[in-house]
UniProtKB/TrEMBL annotation, chain B:
InterPro entries for this protein: Dimeric_a/b-barrel, YCII
Positions of the YCII-related domain: 1-106
Protein name listed in UniProt: Transcription initiation protein
Sequence similarity: Belongs to the YciI family.
Length: 435, 139
């Protein structure tokens, strides 16, 4: 079958992909602990993956696929250390030390012995710490946000460079370059592979959560391109948030983030019309909201609130999403509570977008005349210059106030600034309704 | 995408585990469930009590015949299920391969769970069921 494209070959390739998605975090985590070097661990794990894509269709899927991949990765790591040993004494010592396990270099692992050799690296008591340390390392503040996102999706999510590139609509080479640079940065900064000490943990956790949030946001509001939602990215972020909630159960903000993602994703089925066009909150068929996801989100939010330390920025946004989730309609939404939650969010994490959202909630609670000054202040401060959000909200408020001419010019500006084709169509429709 | 992994066992399966310590069974199942929880994919799971405690309503004749069972006449028994939320069918298959307490005679069936948007939303009964799900926090 080798080289052919018969069903057996395709099946084995599918298995490689699925195993990789499930196991890659643990495999890279175990290899990183073993070598003390995340960059190297990622390299050799990718080599193992490439070897599996050749070997499994040819020889069949091994009995313990994750063990097989880990073993090959471990051997490639030893090979690397040996190669470097010629140049650097430290590696010579390491190669000797790591080779003590009796790992034969080169070749493919024979199924049974190899699997147990790989399984040795999977210390059940360490595996959670390994994955958590991996998340902290991939989201290290020494890396740019783009690099953090790419590396996290690669090592925690198990996505290939191609998949990441497709998800973010950038060339594969760009993703590969980001990951390569990220790995070089980690090596140069000698970032240790560890869960940070307690005094640094909360702040560092903030980086991890923000990466997961970024991935989700990209999936839930495509910043460019033709699709409004890219569920794969959103799903990936949700999965990572669930993993984190189990790995760091005592951190309320982890549950807050999970709650926010579940409650937001619950609305996906109603957010697009049959043609893929966006459906605004007030027009959404709430019967299409995913009740199971709402249930999970509310449970996570209760957990975040139950810690008794007050909600953080993600928890507050989740609480806002919950207000929508439990409301039978836009009019029956507790807009006053949403205004209060936005006020709390502004104190905690001030941002022009939060201010704009508070203005929208204010207009729903108390009318457009109350909200307009807030939006005007924002416009005056120029903090959202270049974004279509401000003129589209301002245009909406002016429309409701009957100031049609001003509304028209605001909405035209919003159309000009909007990069997402689907959202632009909605704005154009609103503009057309004014005439 | 949600998939249901349906456990189907035969007499052969039951015979194989008849003398296995219950603690051991709980442990094996618990480990597997924990692994899926850790991976963020498990949404729901239930196991069913002994089939001999069950009842079968057979509609082959009218009125339907109610018997204890099922016994003997069924080759495979539905013994429990998991619902996993995964990115692909391949991933669901991969999880199914890891299920514990299997062996000759055991089968796992993998079926996609229909999502809410696949049903007509303006149907009165869909609405009623939705209200109930909402009120009770059901999947």
């Amino acid at each position: 079958m080798a080289g052919g494209h018969g069903p057996a070959v395709r099946d084995a390739r599918h298995v490689v992909g699925a195993v990789w998605r499930i196991e890659s975090a643990r495999i890279v985590g175990a290899l990183a602990r073993y070598t003390g070097d995340v960059a190297l661990a990622e390299d050799v794990a990718q080599e193992a993956l490439a070897e599996a894509l050749v070997a499994w269709p040819r020889d069949g899927v091994p009995h313990n696929p994750a063990g097989w991949l880990t073993t090959v990765g471990r051997r490639r790591a030893i090979d690397t250390f040996r190669r470097r040993a010629a140049l650097d004494e430290r590696y010579a010592a390491l190669a000797h030390q790591l080779g003590e396990g009796g790992a034969a270099s080169g070749g493919s692992p024979a199924s049974s012995g190899a699997a147990s050799e790989g399984a040795l690296l999977f210390d059940p008591d360490r595996v959670d710490d390994d994955v958590l340390a991996l998340a902290f390392t991939a989201c290290h503040p020494a890396l740019s946000p783009e690099a953090q996102v790419a590396l996290t999706l690669r090592v925690i999510g198990g996505l290939t460079s191609d998949e990441i590139a497709r998800a973010f609509l950038v060339p594969t080479a760009t993703v590969q370059a980001r990951i390569t640079r990220a790995k070089k940065t980690l090596s140069a900064a000698r970032v240790p592979f560890e869960v940070p000490p307690p005094e640094e943990r909360r702040e560092r956790l903030g980086s991890v959560l923000s990466v997961v949030y970024l991935v989700f946001t990209e999936g839930s509001t495509a910043t460019s391109g033709d699709d409004l939602i890219r569920p794969d990215l959103a799903h990936e972020a949700l999965r990572m948030a669930r993993v984190l909630a189990r790995l760091a159960p005592d951190e309320p903000e982890v549950h807050g983030l999970l709650a926010l993602l579940e409650l937001t994703a619950a609305r996906f089925p109603a957010r697009t019309g049959p043609e893929g066009d966006p459906v605004l909150l007030e027009d959404q068929d709430r019967r299409r909201w995913d009740r199971a996801a709402i249930g999970r989100g509310r449970a996570a939010l209760a957990r975040a609130a139950g810690a008794g330390r007050g909600l953080g920025a993600y928890g507050l946004q989740a609480a806002i999403a919950e207000c929508h989730a439990v409301a039978p309609s836009v009019d029956d939404t507790d807009w006053e509570r949403i205004v209060v939650l936005y006020e709390a969010l502004e104190r905690l994490a001030p941002s022009p977008v939060v201010e704009l959202n508070r203005a929208v909630a204010l207009s729903m609670a108390l009318g457009p005349a109350v909200a307009l000054p807030v939006v005007d202040d924002l416009a005056g401060s120029e903090r959202l210059a270049g974004s279509h959000l401000l003129p589209s909200v301002r245009g909406e408020l002016l429309t409701r106030l009957g100031r049609t001419e001003e509304a028209r010019s605001e909405l035209s500006r919003a159309v000009d600034l909007c990069a997402n084709y689907r959202e632009r169509a909605v704005l154009e429709r609103k503009l057309g309704d004014l005439s | 995408m949600k998939y249901m992994l349906i456990m189907r066992a035969t007499d052969e399966t039951f015979a194989a585990y008849e003398h296995v310590d219950f603690e051991e069974i709980i442990e094996a199942m618990g480990r597997f469930n924990q692994e899926m929880i850790s991976a963020g994919v498990l949404v729901a799971a239930e196991g069913l009590d002994d089939a001999s405690e069950g009842v079968v309503v057979d509609y082959s004749s009218q009125p339907p015949v109610v018997t204890d069972g099922p016994y003997g006449e069924t080759k495979e028994l539905f013994t429990g299920f998991w619902i996993v939320d995964v990115a692909s069918k391949d991933e669901a298959i991969e999880w199914a391969k890891r299920a514990p307490l299997t062996g000759p005679g055991s089968k796992l069936e993998i079926r996609r769970v229909n999502s809410v948007e696949e049903f007509p939303q303006d149907n009165e009964w869909t609405r009623k069921e939705r209200a109930w799900r909402e009120a009770t926090g059901q999947l």
